[in-house]
Amino acid sequence: MTAGTEHPPPATAGWVEEALAEHERQTVDTGTGATKFEHRGSPQPRPGTVREELVLERIDRARRARPRVKEERVIMSHGAGGKATHTLIEAIFLEAFRNPLLEPLEDAARLHVNGARVALTTDSYVVSPLFFPGGDIGELAVNGTVNDLSMAGAVPLYLSAGFILEEGFPIAELSRIVASMQAAAQRAGVQIVTGDTKVVEKGKGDGCYINTAGVGLIEHEASLGVANARPGDKILVSGPIGDHGVTIMLARGELDIEADIVSDTAPLNGLVADLLAAAPGVRALRDATRGGVATILNEIASAAGVGVLVSEDDIPVRPEVRGASELLGIDPMYVACEGRLVAVVDSASADTALAALRAHPQGREAAIIGQVTTEPQGVVQLKTAFGGTRIVDLLVGDPLPRIC
Amino acid sequence: MRFVDEFRDADKAHALAAKIAGLCEPGRQYKLMEVCGGHTHTIYKHGLEDYLPEQVTLVHGPGCPVCVIPMGRVDDAMALASEPGVIMTSFGDMMRVPGSNGSFFDAKARGTDIRMVYSPLDSLKIARQNPDKRVIFMAIGFETTAPSTAMTVLRAAAEGLPNFSVFCNHVTIIPAIKAILDSPDLRLDGFIGPGHVSTVIGCRPYDFIARDYGKPVVVAGFEPLDILQSIYMLMVQLSEGRSDVENQYSRVVPWDGNVVALRAIGQTMELRPYFEWRGLGFISHSALKLRADYAQYDAELLFSVPGVRVADPKACQCGEVLKGVLKPWECKVFGTACTPETPIGTCMVSPEGACAAYYNYGRLTRTRVKEASTS
Amino acid sequence: MCLGIPGEVIELLADQPDLARVDVSGVRRVINIGLLEDEIVGPGDWVLIHVGFALSKIDEAEAAAALQFLESIGQAYEDELAALADSRIE
Questions:
Q1: Quick count: other Cβ atoms within 10 Å of Cβ B207?
Q2: Cβ contact, residue pair A52, B360, below 8 Å
C-alpha cells in the first residue's frame, strides 16, 4: 500500500488525549444533581462480549453527566438553539443565576407578584438580513415576545424595546423597522411602554439589534410546562414548519435560490386563547423558534422523562420548504419557525384542540404529529414516511446562523 | 417530489423486504457493504435496517470523503485560511472537522475569514467580488465532486481570475474499495455500489470486484426503495451463485459514466503518487491534484503548506469503523468522549459518517425500537 | 457530500449557454449544465444536481422501468397478502 517513501514520524493531537482524560474526570465528578457512579475507567468489554445495550447504557450515562462548556470561546453553535446552546445555558447561566423561578427554563418565567400571576420574558433579535419576505426584524421582535408570553398561558400586555444601533445605520431603515413594530403591536393588542437606545461604532454591530422584554397576566388556571407531559398525551403543531428559517437562508442571497417562501412570523396570542378556551387538557405550549420542532420535542422528552414518537407523514411541510431543504442538505425539523406552536395535549382533548386550532386563521393547517410514550425515556423517535424508525436528537452545530 | 417520492413507498418496501428474506439460505449470514456515505445516511435516516432479516447485515464503508481526510491535512487547510488576505471557502460538512488545533468553525470564532459555500462556483463569485483578497476553495469529495472543481478551475482560467485557487483533497473510490477487499480482517459477500460517483466514472471500474474477487456489485440510488431493491438484486445474485456488476440506479447512472466530466478532470487534474487516508494509511494513486498547467490555481503551490502529519489518536478507532471492521458502537470512545457535539474523529463529525449516522438516528436496539413503536 | 437531487429544467439562460434555471419542488436555482454539453438539455428535462452542477440527465424511460418493477413487486405482494387472507387450512 505504501509507496516505499520515507514518511516523517507524525505529530500527535494532544487535545484528544485531554478530551479523554477530561471525560474520565467528569464521570467521577458528582456535582449538583448529577448521577453518581463508580470510576472503573472506560469499560473495555472482551471481544465478542460487547453488546449494543451495554454501549447504549454507557452513552445514556454520558449524556446525563453534568453539562460543561468545552470551548474556550463562543462559537456560532452556541446560538443555534441545539445542544451547544443548552449546554451553555445550563453550565454558565443556570449555574450562576440558579433559583427555582429560572430552573424550568420555559419560554417565560412565571412569577407571583402581590397575588397576581405574571409572566415575564426577554428576547434579543439579531436576524440578518433585517428585511426579508414576510417581515422584518421589528415585526419578529414584537411577535416573538408576544408568543413567549402566550406559551405560558399569559395574556401579553406590555413590551419594552431596546435598540443597539450601529453608527452609519440609515434612519430611514430604522423608521421602517419601528413602523413595523407598531403595526405588529397593534395587531397583537400590546403596547411598547419603555425602551432604550444605544449606538456603537461602525463595525461593532450589524446595523440594528433589538432586545425586548414582555410582561403578561396568566389567566389560564393550570400551569403549562413541558415537564407536565405524560405518556398517552398527543403532540400537535399549528401549521407547516420551517418557513421562517428557509426564508432567511434564501434571503441572504448567497445561495442564488429563488422560491415563493415567506417568513411565518405572526402573533399567536389569539390562537392560544382560542385553544385554551376550547380544550381543557393542554399540558404545554412552546413556540418553535431556533432549533425548530425537533428541539421542542427533545425538551419535552427530557423535562418530563418520557419518550416522544412522531410520524413523518403527519408533520406538515410546504413542498418549497422541503425542496429548499433538500438542496441545502438540512432537515426541516430543525429549522426555525416564528409563528408556529407545538402543543402537548391530553389525549381526550386532542381532537377538540385540533379543531380549535384549525378554526383560527393562524392554525388552518394544524396537525396531530405524534404522542408521548413511556419508553425510551428522554428520546425522540420519528416513524419515517418509509415505515422505519429513527431518532431525532438535539441539533448539533448550526446549519442556519442568525435567523432570528 | 418527482423521482423521489415514488421511491419512498412503504408498501413496496415491505414487498422487497419479504423477497429479501425469502432469498436467505437458512443458517447463512450475509454481510453487504455500502461504500458510499450518502447510502449510510439514507439507511439510518429512513430506518432501513428495520426492514432487513436478521441474517443480512449492512457494513458501512469508507465512502465519506470528509471522513477520510487526515488531521494533518485539516491543519494544512487551517494554515492556509490563516494566511493574510485569504478568504477560505468550504462546503458545510467540512466546517466542523477537527484538526489538531480546532476546526474551521473554531478558526472563524477567532476571526479567520472562512465562508461556507454550496458550490465551488460560489467561491469564484466571492473571488470576483473581492479582488484585493485571495480566495481559496477547499475541494473535497470523490469523483462525484471532482468534475465540479475541474469545471470551476477551467472557468477561472477562462476568465483569467488572478485571486482564486483550490486546495485539492479529492480522493478516488476504487483504491479505497481495493484496500477493503485486500483487508485480511474482513469478510464481505457483496457491495452496494456508490451511486453518484458512478454517474461520473460509470459502472465498468467495478468489474474487477466481480471478476477478480468474486463479489457481486449493484450500483444503487439514494432513495430507500433504491437501496432495498439493490440489496434484493445482490441477494438474487448470491442465491444464483453469480458475481456481476449491475446498475439499479439506471435512471441516473449511465453505464459509461459522464465523458465530459472525466475529460474535465483529466484536463485539470492528475493522480498523486500516494495520499494518506484517515484510518487506511497511505494508498498509492488514490487522490488528485492540479496539473502543472493549472499551477496558478493550486493553493499548495501558491502558499506554503506545513504538511505535518498528525497521527490518528490511539483512542480513535475511526480507521476500523471506516473499514467496516467495527460497528460504530463497538468503538471504545463512541458516545462517551466522542459524540456529535464533541467529535474526536471524522466518523462522528461528518453527517455521513457511520458513527454520526448511528448516534443521531439509529441509536437504539431493534427490540427497543419495536417496543416503542407499538406503545 | 454525495448529495445529489433531481430537479426539472425550466429554462436555459440565453446569454450563458452552460447555465440553466432548475426547479426543485417549487424552489428555483441557476445551475451549471456544462457537464452535459454532449447531450441536448431543454426545458422539461430532469437532471441530477450536485453542488451547483448537473451531473446527469435523468432517463425517464429507465425511471419508469424501475417504478414498474417496484409496482410489480408491490402488486405481487398485495396479491399474496390477499391470497393469504382468503385461504383457509381447516
A1: 12
A2: no
